Amino acid sequence: MLRSYHQKDIAFEAGCDEAGRGCLAGPVFAAAVILPPKFRNKLLNDSKQLKASDRDKLRVVVEKEAIAYAVASVDNLEIDRINILKASFRAMHLALDQLKQQPGYILVDGNRFVPYGKTPHACIVKGDGIYASIAAASILAKTYRDEYMHKLHQEYPHFGWLENKGYPTLFHRDAIRTHGETPYHRKSFRLLPDQPELDFNAPVAEYTVVKVVSPEETQD
Predict the structure, then answer these.
(1) Residue 181 labelled as part of a binding site
(2) Packing angle of the helix pair 52-65, 132-155 (nearest 10 deg)
(3) Is 146 marked within a binding site?
(4) Tens digits of residue pLDDT in 164-176
(5) What angle do CA 119, 122, 123 make, to 5 degrees?
(6) Do the annotations mark residue 65 as ligand-binding?
(7) pLDDT category, 195, cuts 50, 70, 90?
(8) What's the CA gap between 99 and 71, in Å, rounded?
């Protein structure tokens, strides 16, 4: 069972996660979720560990039972303009902006984050497998993005987005080689193997790296 909170004495703790960071096409999506303190669901886990049908079931549960939730996206043009790391954080901020209940603390899946105003936060490595609120955010970000890529598939069926959702599968890359790029492809990414390698994990000076909390350091 995932943990309900990180800071016991804070009433509203929001979990944040993104989906689509490593894709060659489409937006990056992010979600922010505040769950009730006593929320429990045995099925809830990191969205990547679940079947699509289970993610769809959990999305309904999260949207029904969350104190507040929001989903936002940043498109491929903005990703190309500011880079995928900044775009991921921007999507998280946009989701947080939309919450009907503003959080007193933010839990972010990963190892870095841009501070959201003066709200304290913690970056949790593999947090979507530790905290319920982050897992819930991962479910919403993933399911909303998958829906969006299904719509794009209707416009560009040759790229297999119904199955690969824009990720760099062999089929997707072969389709790029055959049909060329679409308006939804991230042109700053290495779309084909013979393109120069790009480093998307390079440090970004204006971003704050906070304490990374490992599973061993977390407490009930």
Answers:
(1) no
(2) 120
(3) no
(4) 999 999 999 999 9
(5) 130
(6) no
(7) low
(8) 9
